[in-house]
Amino acid sequence: MTEKKARPNRRFKLLVAVLVLLALAAAAAFFGYKTLRAERFEVRGNSAVPASEIIALSGIQEGEHFLSIDFEAARQALAANPYLQVNDIYFAFPDTVVIDVSERQAVAVIRQMENAVLISSDAMVLEILPGTSDTTGMLAVRGMAITGAAVGETVAAVDSYQVEALSELLQGLLESGQYALYGEVDMTYSVDIWLVTHEGMRVRVGQAHDLVEKLQQVRIVLDSLNAEGVTTGTLIATDTQSVTYSPATPALPAEGEGEETNGGPAEGEEPQDPEGGQQPLPEEEHEEPVEEPPQDPEETEQPEAA
Questions:
Q1: Tally of domains in the chain
Q2: pLDDT of residue 304
Q3: Which end of the chain is more exposed for a tag (fewer CB within 10 A), N or C?
Q4: Helix (H), strand (E) at residue 170
Q5: Do 117 and 149 meet the contact criterion of CB atoms below 8 Å apart?
Q6: Closest C-alpha to 140, from 198, 189, 190
Q7: Are residues 99 and 127 in the same domain?
Q8: What is the rounded end-to-end Cα distance, in angstroms, of the chain?
């Protein structure tokens, strides 16, 4: 009798426990549905691009439930702005969407026909401007034949290694803190890169290897030369062990230039008077015909035959 009464009690308790668990699960689900929404946005790593623009570009709506957020689509939407590089995007419980980005900067310009192609340090095309646009402060890239330039894509060149070498050079200049020293880079030969400072010093760094170390050695020599007032010439820094300096060679005068003329006009040049006017050419001297004296008839008379 007692055992029969105990069994229904155990079943009842078990049923109550199951119902309680279901109720708690339902309450948790309802609470999560009501609360786990994108009520706040946190944008990290931006400086030039406003946070409001980044949030709008992501496509994530305020109040959207985190289970319905398409983070991959948001990442692709943000990548449509070439100045933005998405590091991470995720939902931080209970109600925050975190967008972590890095901003690209236009650090070099490549002239393509009538256009100026602005690229970042990873060779991404950021903008294509008219060739007459002011690009002061950006490194001018010479000797690079572009085959394709589309905003938001890596620039394409005839020699693909040129793009890779240029990217390594730009990153090396930024990493070493020497980007501002240079105004031009010659990429004609991707394995023999030349830089030119704003003052006119030519720097040969060779291949795009160990660039930070090479540039640091160059900086030491540049500072030493600048202290002596030397700003032009050639520095050879094709390895990390040494930097060789050669002074600028003075330009030779053109043929005939600088020769003494004793104050007279150069050959073929008409004489000038001291007041700046052109002197008249001297009159040509004409020889007067010489008349032969008349011959004496007696001298010209032939003797008679005997």
A1: 2
A2: 47
A3: C
A4: helix 160-175
A5: yes
A6: 198
A7: no
A8: 205
pTM: 0.70
* Tokens 């501002």 found at: 180
Residue 57 CA to residue 301 CA, distance in Å, equals: 127
What is the model's pLDDT at position 261?
A: 46
Nearest-angstrom CA–CA distance, 156 and 162: 9
> What is the residue range of 51's domain?
40-103
Stated length of the chain: 306
User: Could you tell me if 204 and 188 are in contact, meaning their C-beta atoms sit under 8 angstroms apart?
Assistant: no
Q: Exposed e or buried b for every residue in 189-214, given b needs 16+ CB within 10 A?
A: ebeebbbbbeeebbbbbbbbebbbeb
Under DSSP, is residue 22 helix (H, G, I), strand (E, B) or coil? helix
C-alpha to C-alpha distance for 236 and 247, rounded to whole angstroms: 12
pLDDT given at position 30: 54
Judgement on whether residues 186 and 162 belong to the same structural domain of the protein: yes
Tell me, what amino acid is at 287?
E
Residues of the chain predicted below pLDDT 50: 1, 259-269, 271, 273-282, 284-286, 297-306
Distance CA 176, CA 213 (A): 8
Q: Which helix (H) or strand (E) holds 50?
A: none
- Domain identity same for 87 and 69: yes
Query: What is the number of other CB atoms lying within 10 angstroms of the CB of residue 8?
Result: 9
Cβ-contact 204, 244 below 8 angstroms: no
